Structure formats: structure tokens, C-alpha cells
Amino acid sequence: MTSVMIVDDEKYVRMGIKEETDWALIGCEVVAEAANGEEALAKAEETRPDLVISDIRMPKMDGIELAEKLIEKYPAIKVIFLTAYNEFEYARQAVRIGVSDYLLKPFKDGELEASVQRLLHLHPNTPASVVELENTLIPLKDKADIANRYVQTALTYIEEHYADLDFSIGKLADSMGVSEGHISRLFKSETDVGINNYLTRYRIRKAMDYLKDVQVKVYEVAEKVGYQDIAYFSNTFKKLVGKSPSDYQTKGLE
Questions:
Q1: Angle of CA points 245, 125, 155, to nearest 5°
Q2: Which residues contact 167 (CB under 8 A, 6 or more apart)?
Q3: Distance, CA of 69 to CA of 226 (rounded, Å)
Q4: Residue 195 half-sphere exposure, CB side, CA atoms within 13 Å?
Q5: Is the pLDDT of residue 254 over 80?
Q6: 107: which of 111, 159, 180, 219 fits an S-S bond (Cβ 3.0–4.6 Å)?
Q7: HSE-up of 11 (CA within 13 Å, CB side)?
């Protein structure tokens, strides 16, 4: 059963979402409610929800800040934003920080359930043969196989910041307190590829995961993995995978 937390500063909105959604039908149960981001963080610590459904504009801590903190602390958590029309672009950009989906208020009957079901199947159980093929096509080093702690830290930084549009080796190096040249040399000696090359591989592997959901849009995937230019993303994807993102989405690697 997927555990859900509802976050909205309007009590009756929370009640409506909780009572008018057939949670059992989609394999979910509401385990917590919160009226703002600060309260939601405390409740998340207590209940560890799998999914958070949150308004954007709230007192004390808004939905954007809440999502950033939740995703940083619980990387596997999924977040759905409920947004008014004038916040729609704001919410769309939030996918870059890892927000899973957003719905425009007032949403229609069945829309929330459909969004939740999409998220629950976003990363389906992939057959071992397919995983092996993906690993052969775009190999990534396992941190457990890396002896150097600086390189391990660099890999963690990439995992946490791959979606940043302004990702740079300089920022990575500064976060570790070392020079760009030093970490670049260490990284290549341990992984056999440069940092930017590895970042590209990591982004495309993440894109492959997202594209396994046939309902997600290619431009949304591009944003989720750090690409602002969809044409550049598509070209990069095709170079590494051998087919366009849309072809991969419909046919897989076969």
C-alpha cells in the first residue's frame, strides 16, 4: 500500500482530496495531513510517506521549498503539485527539482487518481535481461566499485544534481573543496571517462527510466534530466541509445 500525505493550508481542500478520492482503489492510504511546509516536513519524518500531494502557495514554507527539502532528504519520494492557473508555468518548471507531476486546479474527477497511478508505474520492475542490456549500452560505475572517496563523493554529487541546468565541474569541485583539475584527473582514472561524459551517460540512463512511462512527454523528460534544448536532448539520446526518445518510449530497446 502506497502511503500518502496531503499538504494544503485550506482545511476543506485537504478534506475534499482525502474524502473524494478512492484511495483504496489505486492501492493508497492517506497517512498524514499538513497545513504548511514546516508541518509537512515534521509529519514526513514521522510517517515517511511514499507520495506527497501539495499546494504551492502556503504560509511558513511554500510547496517549492517543501519539495526541495523532501527530495533531498528522501530521494525516492514522489511529489504532485496542485496549482492554480497563474502558477502553472511555475509548477511546470518545478520538474527540474524532481517534482513528479502537477495538476491544474480545479482538477476533474479521476485526474488525481490517474496521476497517482502513472507515478506508481513510472519505474516498473524491469526484466533482468533488459537491465543487463541497458548496462551494456550505457555503462555506469557502481560507487561500491570505486575506492577513492573523492570520486565517490563526485558520483553522489552527480546523482543529486544531474537535473541542474547550470551543472558544472567548477561547482562540483567547489562543493568538495578541491580544484577542477584534481577531481577531473581522479575521476577519469577511476571511471575511465571524464566528468561531463559520465554526467551525459547518467542523464540519458535516467531519461530511459522516465520514458518507460508511455504517458510522459519527451520535453518533460528532457527537463527532468537537465536539458533545456529538446533537440539537443533528442540528438544526445539517439547517439547513445541508437534511437530517438519517442521511438524508445514506444518500442524499448528491441
A1: 70
A2: 161, 199, 226
A3: 19
A4: 27
A5: no
A6: 111
A7: 0
C-alpha dihedral, 232 to 233 to 235 to 241, nearest 10°: 160
Between CA 108 and CA 180 the distance in angstroms is: 50
pLDDT in tens, 234-249: 999 999 988 899 888 8
Provide the edge-to-edge strand list for the sheet that holds 28-34.
28-34, 2-7, 51-55, 78-83, 101-104
Helix residue ranges per DSSP H, the chain: 11-20, 37-47, 63-73, 88-93, 111-120, 128-137, 149-161, 169-176, 180-191, 195-210, 218-224, 230-241, 245-251
pLDDT digits (tens, 9 = 90+) for 49-107: 989 999 888 888 888 889 888 988 888 888 888 887 566 666 666 666 677 777 877 77
Q: Using one digit for the tens of pLDDT, what is the confidence trace for 204-224?
A: 999 998 888 777 889 999 999
How many residues would you count in the chain?
A: 254
Where do the domains of the chain lie, and which CATH numbers do they carry? 2-120 (3.40.50.2300), 128-251 (1.10.10.60)
How far is 171 from 90, CA to CA, in rounded Å? Answer: 25
Q: How far is CA 203 from CA 130, 143, 159, 171, in A?
A: 18, 17, 9, 18
Query: Could you tell me the end-to-end alpha-carbon distance of the chain, in angstroms, rounded to an integer?
Result: 33
Cα four-point dihedral sign 187, 134, 157, 174:
positive
